[in-house]
Design a protein that fits this description.
Blueprint: H1 2-23, E1 26-31, E2 34-39, E3 42-46, E4 50-55, E5 61-66, H2 69-83, E6 88-94, E7 100-108, E8 114-123, E9 132-141, E10 146-148, E11 152-166, E12 190-202, H3 206-209, E13 214-224, H4 225-233, E14 244-252
Antiparallel strand pairs: 1-2, 2-3, 3-4, 4-5, 6-7, 6-14, 7-8, 8-9, 9-11, 10-11, 11-12, 12-13, 13-14
Length: 254
């Protein structure tokens, strides 16, 4: 039942994002202080003093008039709402945040070097006493990408930071009263992860896929606060039990 609800929610959210990326009637861009809204065949450009309407493909101003306070405010609101729509999606296998995890995200920065994701994961019952749903907030920093030809790129290094929680009454953030104070000394519900990885990216796929613009394939090696703590307390724990591997796909929708 948990898996069914998770898959339904993810499919609904993904379908909504795809429909928005492919069929939305209104787009808003900001460049050098000029706000541009595209609504079907009509383009509206707003700067601090004037509003220009451009109709059809002629790219000639049909009417130029002073923009009212209301029109400026509406333009700013449209730009603000468009900026919070996720433009990324992600699918990951393993990585200690679920056997399979999916989510949406945003990229930002001068070179889009920062990425933030909200992910939902699933751990089946055959891996644990019961099946669980996980929620992960993931931040990725990619300092540079090397272009290989016109449509490919390689990122030799990226760093990731994650905060993960597992849903379920069996997990707790503070020790229950049934345990002596300080018996565990850590939370069983919240984990902090840090890792590094590499990814290979393909650009300009929108004419082939009709669903996304770019596709990245990546892997990452990470660890969490609990594993580091256990290694510090017991040096005989092998490194293979401290670090985990995750692989996945990143989609740039628009």
């Amino acid at each position: 039942m948990k898996l069914r609800r998770l898959l339904f929610s993810i499919l609904f959210l993904t379908a909504w994002l795809m429909a928005y990326a492919e069929e939305r009637d209104s787009k808003t861009y900001v460049e050098k202080g000029v706000m541009t809204c595209v609504e079907q065949d009509r383009m509206t450009c707003v700067n601090e003093d004037t509003m220009t309407y451009v109709n059809g493909d002629s790219v000639t101003a049909d009417t130029i008039k002073s923009a009212s306070r209301y029109e400026k405010r509406v333009g700013r609101m449209k730009n603000g709402w468009n900026s919070i729509v996720p433009n990324l999606s992600i699918l990951q296998y393993a990585g200690d945040i679920g056997v399979i995890s999916l989510g949406v995200g945003w990229d930002y920065g001068k070179r889009n070097q920062w990425e933030t994701y909200l992910m939902f994961g699933y751990v089946p019952k055959d891996h644990t006493p019961s099946s669980y749903i996980t929620i992960t907030a993931k931040e990725i920093y990619t300092p540079w990408t090397i272009r290989v030809g016109k449509r490919h790129g390689f990122s030799p290094f990226f760093a990731t930071l994650m905060i993960n929680t597992t849903l379920g009454t069996e997990f707790w953030t503070t020790e229950p009263d049934r345990y002596p104070k300080g018996y565990y000394g850590f939370s069983s519900k919240v984990r902090f992860h840090i890792g590094v990885g590499q990814k290979f990216k393909i650009f300009g796929l929108q004419n082939k896929s009709h669903w996304f613009r770019d596709l990245a394939i990546y892997y990452e090696v990470s660890t969490c606060d609990l594993y580091v703590r256990q290694k510090f307390l017991n040096s005989y724990i092998p490194l293979k039990d401290v670090f985990v591997l995750g692989v996945g796909l990143q989609y740039t929708l628009f």
